[in-house]
Amino acid sequence: MLGAIYALTAVAYTLVYGVVQLVNFAFGELFMLGAFICISLMLPSVLLFGVRVTMPALPLIMAAPLAILFVGLIGVLMERFAYRPLRNAPRLAPLIVAIGLSVLLQSLAQSIWGAEELSFPEFELSKLPPLVLFGSIHVNVMEIVVLAVAIVSMVVLTIFVKSTRLGRAMRATAEDPIAARLVGISIDRVIAAAFLIGSLFAALAGILYAQAYGFANPTMGFLPGFKALIAAVLGGIGSIPGAAIGGMLLALIETFGAGYLPNGSAYRDAFGFGILILLLMFRPQGLLGRRELNEAPAGSLVGTGSSRQQPQWYEDAVRLVGSWLLRFNPGKTVLTLGVLSVAVAAAFLITSDYWLRILIFVLTYGLLASGLNIVVGFTGLLDLGFVAFWAVGSYLTSILFVLVLKQKLGIAPADIWWLFYVNLLLGGCLAALLGIALGYPTLKLRGDYLAIMTLGFGEIIRITATNWIDLTRGPMGIRGIPSPSLFNFSLGQPRYLYLVGLALAVLIFACIGRLVRSYVGRAWVSIRENESAAEAMGVDTPRYKLFAYASGGFVGGVVGVFYAHSQQYVSPLSFTLFENILILMLIVMGGLGTLIGPFIGAAFWIIFLQVAQDIPFIQSHPELRYALLGLALVCLMIYLPQGVAAKARIKLTVPR
Amino acid sequence: MTATILEISGLTVRYGPVRALNNISFRVDRGTIVALIGSNGAGKSTTLKALSGLLELEGGSISFEGEFIEGIAAEKRVERGMAHVPEGRRVFPRMSVWENLQLGGYTRPESEINQDLDHVVSLFPVLGERRRQYAGTLSGGEQQMLAIGRALMSRPRLLLMDEPSMGLAPQMVEMILEKVTAIRDEGTTVLLVEQNAAGAIRLSDYVYVLRVGEIVHQSKGSEINDELLKTLYLGHDL
After folding, report:
1. How many interchain CB pairs under 8 A, A with B?
2. Do A182 and B54 touch (CB under 8 A)?
3. By CB neighbour count within 10 A (0-12 exposed, 13-18 middle, 19+ buried), where does B58 fall?
4. Contact B95 A172 (CB under 8 A)
5. Highest-scoring range by mean pLDDT, A397-401, B21-25, B38-42
6. What gap in Å lies between CA A606 and CA A334, rounded to an integer?
7. I need a labelling partner for B183 at 20 to 30 A (CA). Which of A144, A217, A514, B224 fits?
8. Average pLDDT of chain A to the nearest whole number
C-alpha cells in the first residue's frame, strides 16, 4: 500500500522531470497540502491561523476531488510564478527555487493549520474487517482501495500520455522544446499541464496516505515525498511504469528491511537512502531509465548574468548601486583591516551578552556557509548533505570530552583544556575524510542526481545520530560539553567565545581566500563553469572535486567542534536538512562563489530573526519566519540570482 | 489574393552585443521559391528563426499575408499558415514517424489529419513504409523528408526551409530539391536557406545573397553566374 502511495508521488516527479528536466522538491509539500485541504473540507470547522472557520463538512468522495483540484491549481501557480521566469536560467536556480518553495509551503501550512496533527474524520474503510482470500491471506479493505486507485490512475495517465493530443505534445516538448514550438505546440501550456497533472497525483497520494494513517501534519510530506523521488530515480526518472515499479520495490525493501534486519525498524528510513546511493553509483539511469539523464547540460551552474530580462529601471538601479559601491573602494587591505577592527572592537563595545551570542551565531553560520560555499559556490556541486560534516565535528568533540573522558576515564575537562584545540584539527580532518568518502561515489554524478545523493547522505548521518544511542545518546543529545579555555583561563563568556570564533573565522577566511586564488581555485571554478570542458583541458576533475568536498568538510568539522563547545550541547535536531537549506540560502543570499557573501548572508538572516521576534504577528506564528525565508529564496533567484555581494566575486582573470 | 505573401522591412536581430541582421528588407511572392544564400555567419538561419518567431527582433516588421506578425508567438504563427523546417531536422527521435507527422498537424482539426497524412505519404512514400519506426532510427535523408512532411502537415502557405540538403548524399540532395519544386507547384510558397548555392539558384525563382547581416545582391536566379557568385561570397567589391 505504501508502495502505491510512493508510486503515485513518483509519477509527479517523473512527469515534471520528463518535460522540463526539473526536480520539483515541492511535490512533497503538495502531497501534504492535499491531505490538509481534504481533511479541512470534511470537518465541520477548522482552526485557521488560530481562528475557527466553519467548513462544509463534505463526505470524502466530494472533498477529495475538490482538494486535488485545489492543489493542482497551486501547482500551476507555482510553475507560472516561480519556475517560468527561470526557464532559461542556469541550472542551479530552479533547484534552489524548488527547495525554497518547499520550505515556504511547509511553513505556511504550519502557520495556517498549526503544528499539530489534524486527524482524519472519516475512517470507515480501515475499520472494515479484513477480507480473507484463499482461507489464509488477510487483506485490508483500505489497502485494496489504495492499490486500486493507484493502478487505475496510473493506467489512465499512461493512456493519456500515449495517445491523446496533449499527451503527444507533452512527449514532443520533452524531446525537443524548440521543434515542439515549430509544430505549433504552446510549450507554456504543456509545461503547465505537466505541473497540473503532477500536482494532482501528489495530492491524491497525500489524501490516500492521510486516509490510511488517519492524520495530517505539516511535515508529513517530507519523507514520503523524498522517498517518492527515490522511487522515481529507482525506476528511471521520466518513465511512468518505472515510477510504479520503483515505488513498489522501495516499499518492499523497506518493509522487509525493517522486519528482518536486526534493529531494522529504527533505520527503516535509512534503507531508502542507502538504496538510492547504491543505485546512483552503479546504475544512475535507474531500472527503466535512459543513460543521458545524468548529464548536466553544459553551461555554468551559477551563471553570470541576471536570469531574465529585467525592466529598464531595475537595470539602472542595479548599475547605480554598483557604481556607488565601486566609488567606495578604499583598497582591499584597508577594507579588510577596517572590517576586522570593527569586528574586534565589537567584542569590547557591545556589553550585552545577548547580542554577543547573536554575533557568535553569525560567525558560526557564516563559517559553515563558507565551507559549503567551497563546494557549491566555487566548484558548483550542489551539496544538500553538508550538515553531516558539521555533525561529525560536533559529535567527535562531544563524545571525546563528555562520554569518554569525563564519564569513562573520569578526567576533568579543565585538565585537558588543550584537547579542544587538537579537536578542532581532528574534527576538521575527520570531516574531511568523510567528505572524501562521501564524495567518491558521487564523482560520476552531475546536476540534480548529485543533489539528491548528497541529500541522502545527510539524512543517513542524521538518522544514524538519532538511532545509534550507545554512541550519540540519540535524540536526548549530549549535555555538559565544557567551554573552551586557555590554560586555566576559561573562555566560556560570550565575549571570549566571540573572540575565539572571530579568530577561527579570520583563519579560515584567509585559508579559503588563498586556496581559491591558487591553481586549485581555478580548477574549481573551471569545473563549475563547464565540467566537460575542464576535463578536456586536462583538469583532473575527480581529484579537485574530492579536494573541494574535503576542504568544505574540513571547515564544517572545525566549525562543528567550535559549535559544540560554544553551545555546550549537541543533539541530532541541529543537523537537519532544513539547516542545510538554511546554510545554502545564506550563500545564495550573500552571493555564491564570493568570500564575504556567506558572512553577509548570515548576518542578514540572524539579525532578521531577532528583529522579527519583536513583531507581534510573527511572535504568534514563528514559522512565518521560515515561510519568509522560502519566499526570499525564490525571489532572490528570480530577481537577484547573483546575491548581494556579487560584485565581490573573485575575478580569476586579471585584466591587464 | 495579393502577389506578395511575405514582406520584411528593416529587420534587425542581435545576439548580445553582436548584430546578426542589420536592417534587412525583402519580399517573397506567392507561389515562388525564394532562396537566401550566403556563407557561414551571413545571417540566413537567423532570418528564418526571426520569421518563425524563435528569436526576438530588435527592430523591423514582418508582414505575412498583409498582417504584421512580429508580436505573435512562434506556435501561433504555425496556425497562421507559416511552417519552419529547422536546421538539423529536429525530428522527435523517440517517437514514431507517424506520431511525428501527427504532431505536425497539431494545429489542424483532428478530422482532417488523415487526409493530410495521405498527402504527405504520396509526396514521400518512404515515410508511409516506415510509419511505425522511431524517427531517430531513420537515415539522414529520411529524417529530412520527415521534417519536411511534418511541416507540411500544418498545411502551410509559406514554408521556411533551413538547409534541407545539409549532410546528405548528392543523390539525396537532388531528390530533396526536386521535392521542393513539387511543393511549390502545389501552391506552397517556399523560402529556402541554402549553403548549396548552385542547387538553390537552379531551382529558385528569385535569389537574395546575404553577407554579414546585410543583403548584398538580389536578382532572378538565372542572372547569377559563377563569377558574380564568387564576388558576392568573397566580397571583392567592398
Report:
1. 66
2. yes
3. middle
4. yes
5. B21-25
6. 27
7. B224
8. 79
